[in-house]
Amino acid sequence: MKERLSIQEGAEFLGTSTTFVESMISKGRLQPDSEQLIERAQLADLAELVAKLKGGGIAAMVSTVDQHL
């Protein structure tokens, strides 16, 4: 299993668009290395946060953010 993923692979891991991943990078939520690879642990932490937000009854907001970022 790869420990560092490309932006495309990160989007697949999260079940989101590459635009969402790029937005999380620009906001500092994800921090790729010099090769533009993202640690799997960072993606797992973000996936956990997204799951909590969805579970908290604000799935519509998460979906909207994903579609517009």
Sheet with the most strands: spatial strand order: 1-2
Distance between the termini: 28 Å
Order of helical and strand elements: EHHEH
Largest sheet at a glance?
2 strands, antiparallel
Say how many strands there are: 2
Based on the model shown, name its key terms.
two-stranded antiparallel sheet; 69 residues; mainly alpha; 67% helix
Explain the overall architecture.
- The chain has helices at 7-14, 18-26, 40-68; strands spanning 4-5, 38-39.
- By secondary structure, it is mainly alpha-helical.
- The protein has a two-stranded antiparallel ribbon.
- The model has no long low-confidence stretch (mean pLDDT 85).
- The protein is built from 3 helices and 2 strands.
- The protein has one domain (4-68).
- The radius of gyration is 12 Å and the shape is globular.
- α1 crosses α2 (18-26).
Q: Brief description of this entry?
A:
With 69 residues, the chain is mainly alpha-helical. Helix content is 67%, strand content 6%. Strands 1-2 form a two-stranded antiparallel ribbon.
Compile the SSE list and pairings.
Blueprint: E1 4-5, H1 7-14, H2 18-26, E2 38-39, H3 40-68
Antiparallel strand pairs: 1-2
